[in-house]
Amino acid sequence: GFFMQTSEMLRKICMRNLVRKYCRGLTAERKAQLQQKVVTSAVFSGKKEGYLESLSQPFLETRLKENDLNPKVLQLIRGENIKYVTPVIKYDRNGFKARERLLVLTQSSAYVVEMAKIKQRIEYSTLKGISTSNLSDGIVVIHVPEDNKQKGDVILQCEHVFETVTKLCILANKQSVVKVVKGSLRFRVGSGKEGTMVFTVGPEPQVFKDKTGQLTVV
C-alpha cells in the first residue's frame, strides 16, 4: 500500500515536471494556439459540424494585416490595439443583401468596416450574445443591446468560423454567451423588430431570403 502511494506520488510529480518542461519549451505562439483551441473545444466540441476538421488547422494571428486597412479606418480606431482582422460577408438585416466587409477586432470592440467607413462598432462590454448554427455554415450573429447607438444585430458569414468566433469570445471575455443553435435563430433588426434565420441541409451551400421573408441558410 505505502509503496503504491509513493510511486503514485512520484508519477504525479514526474508528470507535473514533464508538463512544466513542455510548457516552458512552448513558444508564445504555440501557447496561444493551445489556449485558443481549448476555448474552441469548450464552445463547439460535439455541437457544430466541421469542428473535428478544424482541429488540425492552426489559427492564424490575423487574416489581414493592419496596413491592409484603409488609413481613415486606422485613424478612427487609433489608440485601440488591433488584434484580428478578417474579410466577412455581412447580410443586411432588412433585405438580406450580401455585402463584402471586414471584421476588425481590437482589445475593446468589434468593428464592421466597409472600405474607409466604420459601419458598426460593438463594444465588448455591451455584447449580448454570439450565435452560430450546428451545421457546417459559417454564419455568425453578434447580438447587441437594444439602444439608439446600435442598428441591430450583426449577421456575418465567416470563412474561418471557428477561428473568428474563438478570437471574438476570447477578446470579449464572453465565452459563456456563445450559442450553437439548431433549426432557426432570432435576431434583432432594430427599432424593436425581429427577424428569423432558418438553417437547413441541402446539396449546395447558399444563403437566400425565402418567400416568407426569412433568411435561409443551406
Automatic annotation (TrEMBL):
GO molecular function: cytoskeletal motor activity
Domain TH1: 48-218
GO cellular component: a single term: myosin complex
Coiled-coil annotated spans: none
Alphabetized InterPro entries for the sequence: Myosin_TH1 (IPR010926)
Full protein name: MYO1H protein
Organism: Struthidea cinerea
